TrEMBL record:
<feature type="region of interest" description="Disordered">
    <location>
        <begin position="422"/>
        <end position="446"/>
    </location>
</feature>
<dbReference type="Pfam" id="PF13185">
    <property type="entry name" value="GAF_2"/>
</dbReference>
<feature type="domain" description="PAS">
    <location>
        <begin position="104"/>
        <end position="159"/>
    </location>
</feature>
<dbReference type="Pfam" id="PF04967">
    <property type="entry name" value="HTH_10"/>
</dbReference>
<protein>
    <recommendedName>
        <fullName>PAS domain-containing protein</fullName>
    </recommendedName>
</protein>
<dbReference type="InterPro" id="IPR029016">
    <property type="entry name" value="GAF-like_dom_sf"/>
</dbReference>
<dbReference type="InterPro" id="IPR031803">
    <property type="entry name" value="BAT_GAF/HTH-assoc"/>
</dbReference>
<feature type="region of interest" description="Disordered">
    <location>
        <begin position="1"/>
        <end position="20"/>
    </location>
</feature>
<keyword id="KW-0805">Transcription regulation</keyword>
<dbReference type="InterPro" id="IPR035965">
    <property type="entry name" value="PAS-like_dom_sf"/>
</dbReference>
<dbReference type="Pfam" id="PF08448">
    <property type="entry name" value="PAS_4"/>
</dbReference>
<dbReference type="Pfam" id="PF15915">
    <property type="entry name" value="BAT"/>
</dbReference>
<dbReference type="Pfam" id="PF08447">
    <property type="entry name" value="PAS_3"/>
</dbReference>
<dbReference type="Pfam" id="PF00989">
    <property type="entry name" value="PAS"/>
</dbReference>
<dbReference type="InterPro" id="IPR003018">
    <property type="entry name" value="GAF"/>
</dbReference>
<dbReference type="GO" id="GO:0006355">
    <property type="term" value="P:regulation of DNA-templated transcription"/>
</dbReference>
<dbReference type="InterPro" id="IPR007050">
    <property type="entry name" value="HTH_bacterioopsin"/>
</dbReference>
Length: 714
């Protein structure tokens, strides 16, 4: 390694530090070590660099340079040797810091000049020949006590000092060193001058300086290890200190910031506000200052930052720059979540009010109007309800204004075809929500389509438009789904009520070769469904009169069917009456979902025939489509209007007083032969079929009997 070697690459900061352009170095016109480094420092600077590189260590050397303008400047040179023998490093202008150090050193020298250094003299046998008062005080001894004494006897633990003194005497050259003396817990700076007759030693206690240097080194290490950006600017608003975190946050190199004005780095607005706040803190008008702003990094990325700062006593300020981009994003996310939760609570309240109001209405049109108006007055800008026949939809009730999807929109068609809530935007829209080709409702809005259905029957669709793009999360869709089921239940209740009070029914007969989905496992026989009792939770108890089969075969037709949980024979007069419980009755649900009643199922050589009765006014086309969802090849072979038999026309005004559980208990008891004597079924058997305890069954039955008797007595 030679000091006159040329620079192969120089950064854009070279002209600012040395005054020479980069090309002068890279072309070999100038050599840093011989043309720029100050002549007085060339040998010592290069020796320090060479020593560090040979030891495979990084170097850190401070020396003077002569600029192109013939100015003497101080620089700090840090780097390392590479495998190919070249050096890689960077040079930082530390003139201002050095000037401060020199001013401080001058002040200290002036102070120490007024105070005599500690001094003692030793002869060639290491005996004290002179000790001044200052030396005696620092060593904690009396002058007379030390005079003539052997230095190594009096200070036997001073091994480091002894080595240096002996070296000075052996080489007859001055030695200067700083060492710690443990017995006195002090650091001493020593200069020893040898002669043929002895040694003259000048020393001073530098413990405070060493401690101060250690604190400065510690502070520098802390500043460099802090994750946040730390900086300092002087009274001229120029950067004098920045740590690596500050440079990383701005996406720049350290030399691109040091010496630059604050306005050039962070902008006039931020720098001006910081200067104004700093003056207010100096005047005691504020205790602290924080500024938030956006910065554009060197790579073009924009980050949100927050800086807290305070003034130096002698001018300038120091501050901490923190990246708050993620924190602000989390705050925005939490704010959006709070807004969604408020919207969800509002939707719960509105859905509850609409559900209660829908159940109280006496006509389907009134329910539809109440639902549309209730939702429009709550979390949605507009809402409409449509009646469906297959995938054809007719809008019957509309409230609010807005670009809600039309009846022929794919959003509406998908909701009806797939029987689920479909939305255009919002969380979970990746297959569980989104189905429409429309990106949203327009202008940051979103839309949803909710099928109105109950127990297999689809009555229509509810369409809503929200004025925010994320209105339909998983929770919102769940609420809307339950609302659609509640409204569907209200429509089904109206159909059942109409069936109870109507004297006329429509009897339809279907033929199908697909008998597996009927639930009954049989190749022959006629199955007359006397009564289907809904016990709640989607479960049914069928009372079926079987003709053409014996007791064992009739029971096996249900016991062997996978959809039935249990079956028993109630009686075997006039056919076999079987009680069968099921939680999977698709054909029953398809019929009862439209207010109808499954009457008979007959098996023969040409397939299976089933007969059902529906109240007048029911849309048979929709009911037929529901049946074909269970039996795809079902063919309508007969349709007739007929009067309801007296035995099949219970008093609607009386039965209407019963709850669903009370009516289920009463019908199970009646058709299960509980009122016969001797009884065909016990209370325990009927309770088991309903999935309740015997005391609960008795409670429902007694209350039903009280209401029914009251209807005839009152």
């Amino acid at each position: 390694m030679e000091p006159e070697r040329p620079l192969t690459a120089a950064s854009s900061g070279a002209p600012r530090v040395s005054g020479y352009d980069r090309a002068s170095f890279e072309d070999g016109e100038l050599a840093w070590g011989t043309d720029v480094v100050h002549p007085a420092d060339r040998e010592t600077a290069w020796a320090a660099i060479e020593e560090a590189v040979e030891a495979n260590e990084s170097y850190d050397v401070t020396y003077r340079i002569v600029t192109a303008a013939e100015e003497t400047r101080w620089v700090r040179d840090r780097g390392e040797g590479l495998a190919d023998g070249t050096l890689s490093g960077y040079v930082e202008d530390v003139t201002r810091l050095k000037q401060r150090e020199e001013r401080l050193a001058a002040e200290l020298d002036e102070t120490f000049e007024r105070v005599s250094d500690a001094f003692f003299a030793l002869d060639d046998e290491w005996r004290f020949t002179y000790v001044n008062e200052r030396a005696a005080a620092l060593l904690g001894r009396d002058v007379d006590e030390l005079h003539g004494a052997d230095v190594w006897t009096e200070f036997a633990d001073a091994d480091a000092f002894r080595r240096e003194y002996e070296r000075a005497m052996a080489t007859q050259e001055r030695v200067s060193f700083t060492s710690y003396y443990e017995p006195l817990d002090a650091h001493f700076e020593v200069s020893a001058y040898p002669s043929e007759t002895g040694l003259s030693v000048y020393f001073r206690d530098v413990s405070e300086r060493i401690e101060r240097e250690r604190r400065l080194e510690c502070h520098e290490a802390i500043v460099e290890t802090v994750w946040d950006g730390v900086y300092a600017v002087d009274e001229n608003e120029e950067f004098t200190l920045v740590n690596e975190a500050y440079c990383d946050l701005l996406g720049v190199e350290r030399e691109e910031v040091l010496g630059k004005s604050a306005a050039a780095v962070v902008g006039d607005g931020v720098a001006g506000a910081a200067r104004r706040f700093t003056e207010e803190m100096r005047a005691g008008e504020r205790e602290e200052a924080t500024i938030s702003f956006a910065i554009e990094r060197g790579d073009g990325e924009t980050r949100q930052v927050e800086v807290r700062f305070g003034p130096f006593v002698d001018g300038g300020r120091v501050g901490v720059l923190r990246d708050v981009t993620e924190r602000r994003q989390r705050r925005r996310q939490l704010r959006r979540q709070r807004e969604r939760l408020r919207g969800l609570v509002e939707l719960y309240d509105v859905a509850s009010d609409v559900s209660n109001a829908a159940v109280e209405q006496t006509t389907r049109a009134a329910i539809e109007e109440r639902v549309a108006n209730g939702l429009c007055g709550g979390p949605y800008a507009s809402a409409w309800v449509g009646r469906s026949t297959g995938t054809d939809v007719t809008r019957v009730a509309t409230a609010g204004s807005g670009d809600a999807p039309d009846a022929d929109d794919s959003l509406v068609r998908t909701a009806l075809e797939e029987g689920r809530v479909v939305t255009t935007t919002g969380p979970g829209a990746d297959g569980t929500g989104r189905a429409s080709a429309r990106s949203d409702g327009g202008d940051g809005t979103s839309a949803g389509a909710v099928p109105i259905s109950y127990e297999g029957g689809t009555y229509g669709v509810l369409v809503v438009l929200a004025d925010r793009p994320d209105a339909f999360g998983t929770a919102e869709r769940t609420v809307l789904e339950r609302l659609g089921q509640t409204v569907g239940h209200a429509f089904a209740a109206l159909d059942r009520r109409a069936a109870l009070v109507s004297d006329q029914v429509v009897q339809v007969e279907f033929r199908s070769r697909e008998s597996a989905d009927l639930g009954v496992q049989s190749d022959a026989g006629r199955f007359r469904f006397e009564r289907t009792v809904t016990t709640g939770d989607g479960e049914y108890v069928h009372y079926v009169r079987v003709h053409g089969l014996g007791r064992a075969d009739a029971l096996a037709a249900f016991a062997d069917a996978p959809g039935y949980d249990g079956a028993r024979v109630v009686e075997d007069e006039d056919g076999v009456l079987v009680e069968a419980r099921t939680a999977d009755a698709p054909i029953t649900a398809a019929v009862t979902g439209h207010g109808g009643r499954l009457r008979t199922v007959r098996f023969g050589t040409d397939g299976v025939r089933l007969t059902a009765e529906f109240p007048q006014g029911v849309d048979l086309r929709t009911a037929t489509e529901s049946i074909r969802e269970v039996l795809p090849d079902a063919e309508l072979v007969a349709q007739r209007s007929m009067s309801r038999d007296d035995t099949d026309a219970p008093r609607a005004d009386v039965l209407g007083r019963l709850t669903e559980r009370q009516r289920a208990a009463f019908e199970a008891a009646y058709y299960g032969g509980y009122f016969e004597w001797p009884r065909d079924s016990t209370a325990e058997e009927l309770a088991g079929a309903m999935g309740v305890t015997a005391p609960t069954f008795h409670q429902h039955l007694r209350e039903a009997e009280r209401k029914l008797l009251g209807g005839y007595v009152e």
